[in-house]
Design brief:
mainly beta, 6 strands, two-stranded antiparallel sheet, four-stranded antiparallel β-sheet
Length: 106
């Protein structure tokens, strides 16, 4: 996870990248989706950093979450990225409930 801001450089604008430390930053194994036990096929990203403060300290910035997934059988990899442009769009305090709907309890 990174906060990406703009900075003025000679000849225009450049990017300034701040890494956000996640509580679990190493590999994890997700099983295929199963109706009987949907908890095994999801992962919750969390951090001790105060994202609202960190993000608002950097003007004209976005929050980028990047996940690299690898198929255990073929070893093919794919990178998934999601960029958030607004704090209200990206941050929801709370924990996910058990079930398909992924409701967040505050």
């Amino acid at each position: 996870m990174q906060i990406i801001g703009n900075r003025v450089v000679e000849g225009g604008k450049g990017r300034k990248i701040y890494d956000v430390k996640l509580l679990k930053n190493d590999r994890c194994i997700l099983k295929p989706y199963c109706k009987n036990n949907p908890l095994d096929c999801s992962f919750e990203f969390s951090t001790d950093a105060n994202l609202e403060v960190e993000w608002s300290n950097t003007q004209e910035s976005t929050l980028l979450l990047r996940v690299i997934a690898q198929d255990s059988f073929t070893s093919f990899s794919k990178v998934y990225e999601q960029e958030y442009f607004s704090i209200k769009e990206a941050i929801i305090n709370g924990r996910f409930a058990i079930g398909k709907k992924m409701i967040i309890h505050r």
